[in-house]
Amino acid sequence: MKISSILGLNARSSLFTGKYNSRMAKRIADSKIATDRVLRIAHVAHPKIYAKFKTPSDCLEFKWEELSESFALKPSRGMGGEGIIVVKKRLENKGSNEIIWLTTQKTKVTVEDLKLHTLDILEGAYSMGNVPDTAFIQEYVGRHSKFRKLAYRGTPDIRIIVFNKIPVMAMLRLPTKESGGRANLHQGAIGVGIDIATGITTKAIWHGSEILNKPGSNRKLRGIKIPFWNTILTTAVEGQIASGLGYAGVDIVLHPEKGPMIIELNAQPGLQIQLANMEGLKKRLERVDEMEVRDAEHGVKIAKAIFAGTFSDRVRAEEGIKTIKAVEEVKILDAEGKKHLSLAKIDTGAWSSAIDSKFAKSLGLLKKNKVLWYRKKLSSLGKEERPVIPVIFYLSGRKISTHVTVSDRNLLRYQLLIGRTDIQGFLIDPIVDKENLVKAKW
After folding, report:
1. What is the CATH code of the structural domain delimited by 3-46+143-306?
2. What is the pTM of this model?
3. Structural domain boundaries of the chain?
4. What are 300-350's pLDDT values in tens digits?
5. How far apart (Å, rounded) are the C-alpha atoms in residues 401 and 418?
6. Dihedral through CA 175, CA 176, CA 180, CA 186, nearest 10?
7. Residue pair 212/328 in contact by the 8 Å Cβ criterion
8. How far is 414 from 442, CA to CA, in rounded Å?
9. Which residues does the UniProt record annotate as the domain ATP-grasp (predicted)?
10. C-alpha pair distances (Å), 281 with each of 16, 99, 102, 268, 278
11. Terminal C-alpha separation, the chain
12. Nearest alpha carbon to residue 197 among 159, 154, 238, 168
């Protein structure tokens, strides 16, 4: 990880949170009650709030005995998961009228315990600066089956950094025994980096050091496919848009039945996500700073196109290093997913790949809703903006999902040029295939 690409505390405050996050948006993110309101209005998935307590009388008059079997009691302005009681089920208490619940931490609580805890919240016991707060009861979100053997008791969440409607970095946070079932890295939870394009975990950290397996077990933390990945990314962007934050940390949980839900918004998210991904945030943020993004779906498409991990080491291990020639026959997918044969020039001198405009149009790939963004280029004709579109093709039997620049290649020999970003994991034979060269001339 290059030092120049790392986002530090000062840069985060001066360049991003201070510049792109208004006071109003910060107030919304700092209050879970306000967050619930804006997400509800925008129809963004999040756990329901069953009851709110603003005054002691609200707490004392509430009919606690009518609560469902499972729920969470939280402070609106709590920090780091402090002050949260998560109730998993209601226990049978034969021979007594007292109601008892069991929490996810295997402790028993009564109505009186919940009342006292609520009064503590109202007095500001868990808020920053100990200022008076609001308490609320929220829908219980259990552990998704995918994470049941990876997390200790609590609910894992997925932290996604969203900037300019584009998800730029993500990590899975796994509660441990040390963290008390909380998904907080500073308290001992595990952070696992996630590849934006695929939703597959890549690296993991614990107490700032890289680990391969879950502590105390042989369970690998790399290579885990996160369910509902596209929906998770879209939900995160929708949450950022609804909050008004320009730069946000969006925490998402996977409800076992209902799928992805936003549990919290952060106006100033922590920076350990860079360690979990072994990559700096700064360059990623700068790369998307001035892009024009239409909506959440468009933002997700851009993110998948430009922040895809290479996985070149894994490819080499599974498939071996493949050798390709300077000119290769590829199978490119059109808008309907049908394959078309085409000759492509393998150009190690070009950073990114390019496709001929007429060829792209014939494949149905140049429609307006397919364009990710426009790249400014200086040519003999002056300044021009060239569309960048997503393309899927097969090279030497390997599927490659990428983004390519559209240009007029009518006077050039090949309709498709493949640059360095799309040939990682291959060896290039510089000798040109004469048979393919004849095909290209024809």
Report:
1. 3.30.470.20
2. 0.81
3. 3-46+143-306, 49-138, 320-441
4. 999 998 887 654 444 444 445 678 999 999 999 999 999 999 999 999 889
5. 12
6. -70
7. no
8. 11
9. 36-292
10. 11, 49, 41, 14, 10
11. 47
12. 168
